[in-house]
Amino acid sequence: MWYPEGMKATLSNPTVSPRLLEDYLDQVDDWRIDFDQLLIRIEPRFVRSDLRGSLRAYLTGLLAPLERKNGWQLAQQAGCQTPYALQHLLGRALWDADAVRDDLRAYVQEHLWTPEGVLVLDETGFLKKGDTSDL
């Protein structure tokens, strides 16, 4: 489960004020509303309902606090037995990637753009574990 900054520690602390907990829960509700609005915008690019479900599961998994985000972990996070549905979404399903990109760009401009703003994209990898994997 994803929590706003500091929420995990707050949930385990019985002395946290009810008001602070309510503020955190409001942040989660606001985040879910924004996430749902974004999905409403891009889901029409995915004609089949199973693809829309896989899209939601995939994006939710990417935002989850998982140590590794490979197909199996993302599928497990989504409650799936195998990663095949997510792999189908990313590798074989028909959807318009350029249109999704344009929708996401428009969403970001509408919600985050300011004249002083700078967008920084960072493809953050993971630390190598062991000596047999190639980087």
Question: What's the β-strand tally?
Answer: 0
Q: What is the molecular shape? A: globular
Output the helix-strand order. Answer: HHHHHH
**Strand residue content:** under 5%
Distance between the termini: 29 Å
Number of domains: 1
Poorly predicted sequence stretches spanning 5 or more consecutive residues: none
Biggest sheet: strands, sense, closure? none
| Structure classification | mainly alpha
Oligomer: single chain
Please write out the topology.
Layout: H1 7-11, H2 18-42, H3 49-63, H4 71-78, H5 84-91, H6 97-112
Helix pairs in contact: 3-4
Notes on the structure:
The protein is mostly helical and 135 residues long. The protein has one domain (7-112). The chain contains six helices and no strands. The chain has helices at residues 7-11, 18-42, 49-63, 71-78, 84-91, 97-112. Helix 3 (49-63) packs across helix 4. The relative contact order is 0.09.
Characteristic key phrases:
about 0% strand; mainly alpha; about 140 residues; about 55% helix
Entry summary:
The chain has 135 residues and is an all-alpha fold. The chain has helices spanning 7-11, 18-42, 49-63, 71-78, 84-91, 97-112. The protein is globular.
